[in-house]
């Protein structure tokens, strides 16, 4: 059985036509702050808008500790043509016993609608099935986040249902849309 440490001891860089998915570094602080400080983005995620570079740096420090400890941690999504970090994507949950994992992602608003998140998600789904021995990959989004649901559909995930008031986020109960793809679907 593959373990989390088998993968995260040396998180590989994944490449696509337009993107490089790689470990995040402190040099990414300003790029991450650019999108993490955008209230329109934080409207669709569980984390709060970053009020300062200091908070973004603290978040990156937290990620670096996860890398050091071989724990689940995000890939930074880097646009090849500019070499700028424009988002993150990661497995936020992984049951090695059941061979199921969940992905989550965030992307700079200036790149919404460009197909970049679909490109990143396709690479991560492929990696999950080929390198992590997964049989199922899930993703969830708030029911108001049609853009995220559309990404899930484009990577071949199927809508499995609405989880009503499944999460309290920023003091408010949220409905979550659940999508999944099976290795057998590919």
Indicate the topology.
Elements: H1 4-8, E1 14-15, E2 19-22, H2 29-36, H3 39-42, H4 53-68, E3 75-79, E4 84-95, E5 100-107, H5 116-131, E6 136-142, H6 146-154, E7 158-169, E8 172-182
Parallel strand pairs: 5-6
Antiparallel strand pairs: 1-2, 2-3, 3-4, 4-5, 6-8, 7-8
Tell me about this structure.
It is a single chain. The chain has 186 residues and is α+β, with helices and mostly antiparallel strands. It has one domain: Gcn5-related N-acetyltransferase (GNAT) (Aminopeptidase, 3-Layer(aba) Sandwich), CATH 3.40.630.30. 31% of the residues lie in helices and 33% in strands. It is built from 6 helices and 8 strands; from the N terminus they run αββαααβββαβαββ. An 8-stranded mixed sheet has the order 1-2-3-4-5-6-8-7, sandwiched between helices. Helix 5 links the parallel strand 5 and strand 6. Helix 2 crosses helix 4. The longest helix is centred in the N-terminal third of the chain and has 16 residues. It is globular, with a radius of gyration of 16 Å. The protein starts with a helix and ends with a strand.
Short recap of the structure:
This protein is α+β, with helices and mostly antiparallel strands. Helix content is 31%, strand content 33%. It has a single domain, classed as Gcn5-related N-acetyltransferase (GNAT) (Aminopeptidase).
Inertia-based shape: globular
Which spans of ≥5 residues are poorly predicted at pLDDT below 50? none
Structural class: alpha+beta
Q: Beta-strand level of the residues, as a percent range? A: 25-35%
- Output mean pLDDT: 96
Look at the structure and name the CATH superfamily: Gcn5-related N-acetyltransferase (GNAT)
Number of domains: 1
CATH architectural category = 3-Layer(aba) Sandwich
- Biggest pleated sheet: 8 strands, mixed
| Cα separation of the termini | 22 Å
CATH class: Alpha Beta
Classify the helix fraction into a percent range. 25-40%
- In oligomeric terms, what are we looking at? single chain
């Amino acid at each position: 059985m593959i373990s989390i440490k088998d993968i995260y001891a040396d998180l590989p860089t994944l490449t696509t036509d337009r993107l490089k998915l790689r470990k995040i570094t402190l040099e990414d602080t300003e790029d991450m702050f650019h999108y993490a400080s955008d209230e329109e983005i934080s409207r669709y995620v569980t984390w709060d808008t970053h009020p300062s570079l200091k908070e973004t740096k603290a978040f990156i420090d937290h990620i670096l500790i996860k890398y050091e400890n071989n724990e689940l941690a995000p890939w930074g999504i880097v646009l090849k043509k500019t070499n700028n970090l424009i988002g993150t994507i990661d497995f936020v949950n992984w049951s090695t016993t059941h061979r199921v994992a969940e992905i989550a992602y965030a992307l700079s608003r200036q790149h919404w609608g460009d197909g970049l998140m679909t490109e990143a998600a396709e690479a991560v789904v492929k990696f999950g099935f080929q390198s992590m021995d997964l049989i199922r990959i899930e993703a969830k989004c708030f029911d108001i986040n049609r853009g995220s649901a559309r990404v899930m559909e484009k990577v071949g995930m199927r809508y499995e249902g609405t989880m009503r008031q499944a999460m309290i986020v920023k003091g408010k109960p949220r409905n979550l849309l659940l999508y999944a793809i099976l290795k057998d679907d590919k």
